[in-house]
Design goal:
The protein has 485 residues and is of the alpha+beta class. The chain is built from 15 helices and 16 strands.
């Protein structure tokens, strides 16, 4: 029996308007080599100037995962050659990072586990290689330096994860936190969030770590989970066959569902770190740190627990609603239109949660959109819920109204009035329809009187059909039961 040890290195593009050491734009998708200058392309004689906003974002990220924020940290030169790294070294942090010794909680099968975070440090990103492939062989490569110098946060976990599912949950929670505090959009398709995984196995109970393999080129959390599952199985089969696991970096090939060796790492690279002479140390005093703490928003887990306790939501619904800050804000904005007492407030909250998670997100997800693109604003959805609550419309009619609201962007009241959809709550009018239905459906009446309680469903349906869905269902049931008895 073997046990697995997993550690993750996550790189996050910070959502600053300019690069880490120059004023070039960080906007994604511009023409290649249009967001560059002598500083980010490493021309002789230039001097970097640190982006203060990047430091603030780094500190916010550290605070969000309970890191100790360094009062004194420095940048270092990490020396290695890459075609897309024009200086032939990367400005990063080594011995004195910005943040250290944090943690993040995950929950798997109702069990909570704390994952340690070793460090969070600032560094600049490299450029991007574009390979032009001919019919038979590689013809040439192009370099786009637009990404060079964009501020990165590297978040390094402790090797505390023991299953691919734990790694998946860690990444999901970390992404939610980073997006909540607004320091990155974490868009993996744009390369705003990238992850390398270090994985090894060892005999169960063994304290010494096994041979570490690094996994790269994973473009989604699902790919990371799949790659880890494959790699663990591969390493187990290797040891069981009497062979040794080689320390190397491996790429994840999504098409074949396998990892492929990229380069051997028998020895650790000597990057010859030394302090960056062109940048002064970062000094964080108590006044500045306290200002950063004030900017820290309510985090996903805290907000989720509040939704459960205050609004009586299920853990699942609260988890969905707090998965994105903009979605949680939308929910609470809707609720702000209901200054109600606690019991009724809870009832409205649950009803609102159902409309958002089932109806609204169902449509948005089908169009691959998030709540910020909703054609139904929070005040308009609140108006729809009020019309249901005060019996102006039935739940069935509300779904029809909702469909039109989504397509046309109109308010619920506007649609209800223009189409005459106001619910019939006049007892006399409903009694008249009920009498007609009883006369026309003697078989269902006889079945109900003989003890088949479910037969009343057919009668209720007939009343709703005659009233074109406008009759108040509660009154319909009351009047039918009274007359049948």
């Amino acid at each position: 029996m073997y046990e697995t040890v997993i550690g993750l290195e996550v790189h996050v593009h910070l959502k600053t308007k300019s690069k880490l050491f120059c004023g070039c734009s960080t906007e994604f998708g511009n023409e290649p080599n249009s967001n560059i200058c002598p500083v980010c392309t490493g021309q002789p004689g230039v001097l970097p100037v640190l982006n203060k906003k990047a430091v603030e974002f780094g500190i916010l990220a550290g605070l969000a995962v309970d890191c100790k924020i360094a009062k004194h940290s420095i940048f270092a030169r990490k020396n290695y050659f890459y075609p897309d790294l024009p200086k032939n070294y990367q400005v990063s942090q080594y011995e004195l990072p910005l943040c250290e010794k944090g943690s993040l909680e995950i929950k798997i099968d109702d069990k909570t586990k704390k994952i340690g975070i070793t460090r969070i440090h600032l560094e600049e990103d490299a450029g991007k290689l574009l390979h032009a492939i001919g019919s038979q062989e590689l013809d040439y490569s192009l370099v786009d330096y637009n990404r060079t110098g964009i501020p990165l946060l590297e978040i390094v976990s402790e090797p505390d994860m023991s299953t691919p599912e734990e790694a998946y949950q860690y990444l999901t929670n970390l992404k939610a936190i980073i997006r909540y505090i607004g320091v990155s959009d974490c868009d993996m398709e744009k390369g705003s969030l990238r992850c390398d995984a270090n994985v090894s196995i060892r005999p169960a109970g063994e304290k010494k770590l096994g041979v570490k393999v690094e996994l790269k080129n994973m473009n989604s959390f699902k790919a990371i989970r799949d790659a880890l599952n494959y790699e663990i199985k591969r390493q187990e089969e290797t040891l069981n066959s009497g062979e040794k696991i080689l320390q190397d970096s491996r790429l994840w090939d999504e098409k074949s569902g396998t990892t492929v060796s990229m380069r051997s790492k028998e020895q650790a690279h000597d990057y010859r770190y030394f302090p960056e002479p062109d940048l002064v140390p970062i000094e964080v005093d108590d006044v500045f740190l306290n200002e950063m703490k004030k900017n820290l928003v309510e985090l996903p887990d805290t907000r989720k627990n509040r939704f459960i306790e205050k609004f009586g939501l299920s853990e699942y619904d609260a988890g969905v609603l707090t998965s994105e800050k903009v979605l949680a804000d939308y929910f609470e904005n809707c609720l702000s239109y209901f200054p109600l007492s606690a019991p009724l407030y809870t009832l409205i909250a649950k009803q609102l949660s159902n409309w958002i998670t089932t109806e609204l997100l169902g449509k948005l997800n089908a169009e691959n959109k998030d709540i910020s693109y909703s054609p139904i604003s929070s005040d308009k959805l609140a108006e729809l819920i009020k019309l249901i609550a005060d019996s102006t419309i039935s739940g069935k009619i509300a779904k029809t109204v909702f469909e039109q609201m989504y397509k046309e962007g109109k308010s619920a009241l506007e649609i209800v009035k223009s189409q005459g959809l106001i619910q019939i709550s006049d007892e006399g009018a409903i009694e008249k329809i009920v009498d007609e239905v009883i006369t026309e459906n003697q078989k269902a009446v006889a079945e109900y009187k003989s003890g088949k309680q479910q037969a009343i469903g057919a009668l209720v349906g007939a009343v709703m059909k005659k009233s074109k869905g406008k009759a108040n269902p509660k009154l319909v049931n009351e009047i039918l039961k009274r007359k049948l008895q």
